[in-house]
Amino acid sequence: MSKRESFLRNHLVIKLLRKRLATFKEILEYLKLESELQGYNFEISKRTFQRDLEDIRSIYSIDIQCNTSNQYFIVEDDRAEANERIFEALDVFNAFNLTENLSESIQLEKRKPQGTENLLGLLHAVNNRLQITFSYQKFWENNPSQRTVEPYLTRSRGHAVRALQTNASAAKLAFNRKVA
Description:
With 180 residues, the chain is α+β, with helices and mostly antiparallel strands. It has helices spanning 3-19, 24-38, 46-60, 80-98, 102-105, 119-128, and strands at 22-23, 63-66, 71-75, 132-136, 145-154, 160-165, 170-174. It folds into 2 domains: 3-100, Arc Repressor Mutant, subunit A, CATH 1.10.10; 116-177, no CATH class.
């Protein structure tokens, strides 16, 4: 079985258990249906399922337990919302890969990237309390300005950073307006 099939299977198990409790038999039926829809073989043994649960716990930090009625469920924690957004993006990505002629089925917005390429660097600066310097341009201004800030929070969608500027005032800066 390929890594892609294993990855997608784990995603499907999580997706199902986010909706409802399910027995191993119900999970197998769901995986069989998805196998037919997606053209992969997601069917697994009980032992492979147990290994998948270990992988899901270690990779995604999602704990799946079995209750006394032999139904599996996800133990919710403070990372649940972040994981939901990640899996939402994976659903969109997977839909793109399944659609043979994308332009006939899905109309994408024509837009520039929103600055998410800076997200890891900003998170590093937030976690280590580092100052960052960059050029920033407001939409209504012609020339960019130099900014030095101490970021302390990034928005969940990754479109903005809240930062303390060197003059001690708080500001919200959009990633897609940063020019360098």
